[in-house]
Design goal:
The complex is a heterodimer of chains A (249) and B (411).
Chain A lengths: L1 H20 L6 H12 L3 H23 L8 H39 L2 H7 L4 H5 L1 H33 L4 H11 L2 H27 L9 H31 L1
Helix pairs in contact in A: 1-7, 1-9, 2-7, 3-4, 3-7, 4-7, 4-8, 4-9, 4-10, 7-9, 9-10
Chain B lengths: L7 E10 L2 E11 L4 E6 L5 H9 L6 E6 L2 E2 L5 H10 E4 L11 H10 L6 H14 L15 H13 L5 E5 L7 H18 L2 E6 L4 H5 L2 E6 L2 E6 L1 H4 L5 H7 L1 H10 L4 H13 L7 E8 L2 H8 L1 H18 L5 E7 L2 E7 L3 H16 L16 E10 L5 H10 L2 E6 L7
Parallel strand pairs in B: 3-8, 3-9, 6-7, 7-8
Antiparallel strand pairs in B: 1-2, 1-4, 4-5, 9-10, 11-13, 11-14, 12-13, 14-15
Helix pairs in contact in B: 3-4, 3-5, 12-13, 13-14
The chains are: A mainly alpha (249), B alpha/beta (411).
Chain lengths: 249, 411
């Protein structure tokens, strides 16, 4: 019952945030700040994780496929795994760790230090001020970061498959081109958009309502909210992934 | 709207959190252009009252009227307009720690989108100059002192020229100098800008000096509201406790009854036969007391009264007595089941003890000295005497016990 209540609260919070995106004056500066915070500052970690995820996939894939004499399809296997699954999911998990936890903590501290109440007293809608720019930025950043992850992951697979293990470069690329379709790419993007919504909504919601937590107040409450934000959004990303995959396949 | 029409009015407002009733059928009127102070013990419902005004909380029962219109009947546009007229200065300032001072002050204007950047700069600069914050514009709240943070919070509360400013314990945690400067800053700005101020404070009696009206809240009820000068006429015990809270502490530390407490205790003891048919009252007076406070200092004056009180307590231990302060410079001691000879003997012993006290040595006063004496008047009394009669009669019988002569050193 409590879980349903919490999910309902998050849904209402999300709807409020989205509706308030279109209210004037538009918060362009804050939107750009969030693009920088969620997107630009995550680029390095996404590049790093994407590269090594692709390299590991290339390595594992090669030694599995070589048993069947099918190592030529490595490019397609790596690309499909990354574009359909690993790209959106790992990007979301990385952003949760880097930006989501920070969002929950920042908004939570604003709540316990009465900064959110102060916004209210200044007739500034706190949901509009704190959540709306973040959700729009997430909708922009998550697909772009996923695209970056996909590209660098494929390059990682190429490095192990072609450069390290000696698969023919032309075969790697042609198999990749044959096996990966636009629907796969779009499916990955749909997922990343959904994950962006899930991650930012949960993280902001947990911080925003930190004062309603029964199990801890003040700094402890913020720490619990941050933990909940990370755990909950990670789990919900995987659940959403399963649901979306079953519809997209 | 006339000055006699309240700008904000509470009508039978109640608020509870769980089982705890925080406000109970409160009626409160706040008039335009005035400073109204809400005074009360911690947890009595003062901050909740402010939060109800600004709309951070909603009443469980009753109505809050703004300009004569119940807030709950207002549509969202009217509420938003009302909110734009009311600003709130939080107890802990609630400054945005990730923004610099300029952005903090400008926030109420920049978020509205109706004010140009140039006008924002001008209006912020006006407030910054007025509150002497010029050097802090690029700094973050954590980089400036507590007093400056208060001024930034005040600048933010005033930047959009509100009609009403609510101050939630603006002087909490400040040293006495900063406390005075914050209170004077509020009162000067209130006069300059003419806003209506509602102030929650524990700084009694200082807050009375800057208020046009005072409301005292106790356990969720308003036990007094009116002009500060009318406070003293109130019969409510707690009101007096607030007014005299500073001397109350002094008396409590010295083991003496307050003037009102002394009267109550005497009446109770007299009516219930605890004093017997005849008793003896001794009135001790520190002559020239107010001059000692003025010239030598408050702490020396306190030292004299405290020493006298300690000696009295030593000599009357085990006796059935009432001991209290009937004014700043006078201590009354009522000895039940005693006679004049015993009382005179006791006074003589007390006089001997007083002779050896430091405050009677001229060398104790390094720079400023003031002649004074301690006198005692002894009278016999009966339960049909009022306390006032006893004090008057004893005052007429006063004889000198000890004296300090400063000679050339006197100011």
């Amino acid at each position: 019952m409590k879980v349903l209540q919490e999910l309902g609260g998050m849904f209402v919070f999300f709807l409020q945030g989205v509706a308030l995106v279109f209210s004037f004056p538009l918060q362009l500066r804050k939107f750009l700040e969030q693009i920088y915070f969620i997107g630009v500052k995550s680029v390095f970690v996404i590049l790093l994780v994407g590269l090594f995820a692709g390299m590991v996939l290339g390595l594992q894939g090669y030694y599995t496929l070589v048993k069947f004499g099918s190592e030529g399809v490595l490019g397609g296997v790596v690309a499909l795994s990354i574009i359909r699954e690993l790209g959106p999911v790992l990007t979301a998990i990385m952003v949760i760790g880097r930006a989501g936890s920070a969002m929950a903590a920042e908004i939570g501290i604003m709540r316990i230090t009465e900064q959110i109440d102060a916004l209210y007293t200044m007739a500034i809608n706190p949901v509009r001020y704190l959540f709306s720019p973040r959700i729009v930025a997430a909708l922009v950043c998550f697909p772009l970061l996923t695209a970056l992850f996909d590209v660098i992951g494929i390059i990682g697979g190429y490095l192990t498959g072609v450069v390290l293990l000696g698969i023919n470069s032309g075969i790697y690329m042609s198999r990749l081109e044959n096996l990966v379709g636009l629907t796969d790419v779009m499916g990955g993007f749909y997922k990343s958009i959904a994950f962006g919504i899930v991650v930012v909504t949960i993280c902001c919601y947990q911080g925003f309502y930190v004062h309603t937590r029964k199990e801890g107040f003040g700094a402890k409450g913020v720490s619990l909210a941050t933990t909940s934000a990370v755990v909950m959004s990670s789990v919900l990303v995987l659940i959403t992934d399963y649901v979306l995959t079953s519809f997209l396949l | 709207m006339t000055m006699n029409t309240p700008l904000i009015q509470f009508q039978n407002v109640s608020k509870r959190f769980g089982d705890k009733v925080v406000l109970d059928n409160v009626d409160l009127s706040i008039y335009p252009g005035e400073v109204t102070s809400l005074v009360g013990m911690s947890g009595s419902g003062k901050s909740v009252t402010l939060k109800l005004i600004i709309g951070l909380l909603k009443p469980d029962k009753g109505d809050i009227l703004f300009n004569g219109k119940p807030v709950r009947e207002m549509n969202s546009r009217e509420r938003k307009e009302m909110k734009l007229l009311v600003n709130f200065m939080f107890q802990n300032n609630a400054l945005f720690d990730s923004m610099n001072v300029f952005d903090n002050i400008a926030l109420p204007l920049s978020e509205k989108g109706r004010v140009s950047r140039e006008e924002i700069k001008t209006r912020v600069a006006d407030k910054v100059e007025l509150l002497d914050l010029q050097d802090t514009m690029e700094k973050y709240p954590s980089q400036i002192s507590g007093g400056m943070q208060k001024r930034v919070a005040l600048a933010r509360a005033l930047v959009n020229d509100p009609q009403v400013v609510l101050f939630d314990e603006p002087t909490t945690g400040l040293d006495p100098t900063r406390k005075n400067s914050v209170l004077s800053m509020i009162t000067h700005n209130q006069k300059d800008f003419g806003f209506t101020a509602v102030l929650v404070s524990h700084d009694v009696p200082d807050v009375f000096y800057i208020s046009n009206r005072v409301a005292i809240i106790e356990e969720g009820k308003i036990i007094y509201q009116g002009a500060p000068e009318e406070l003293e006429q109130s019969e409510h015990e707690l009101v007096h406790e607030f007014i005299n809270s500073q001397s109350s502490l002094e008396n409590e530390v010295m083991g003496l009854e307050n003037p009102r407490g002394l009267d109550t205790t005497y009446r109770y003891a007299a009516n219930n036969g605890e004093l017997g048919n005849r008793f003896v009252a001794v009135l001790y007076t520190v002559q020239n007391f107010s001059r000692i406070q003025e010239i030598v200092g408050i702490l020396m004056a306190h030292n004299i009264i405290a020493t006298l009180s300690r000696i009295l307590n030593n000599h009357i231990s085990g006796e059935s007595i009432i001991l209290g302060r009937c004014s700043d410079d006078r201590i009354l001691c009522i000895l039940s089941e005693s006679d004049m000879d015993r009382a005179k003997n006791m006074v003589s012993n007390i006089s001997e003890d007083l002779q050896s006290q430091d405050f009677l040595r001229q060398s104790k006063y390094i720079k400023k000295c003031m002649d004074f004496s301690i006198t005692a008047g002894i009278v016999e009394g009966s339960p049909d005497h009022s306390l006032y009669d006893l004090i008057e009669k004893a005052g007429n019988q006063e004889k000198e016990l000890v004296r300090l002569r400063c000679g050339d050193q006197q100011e």
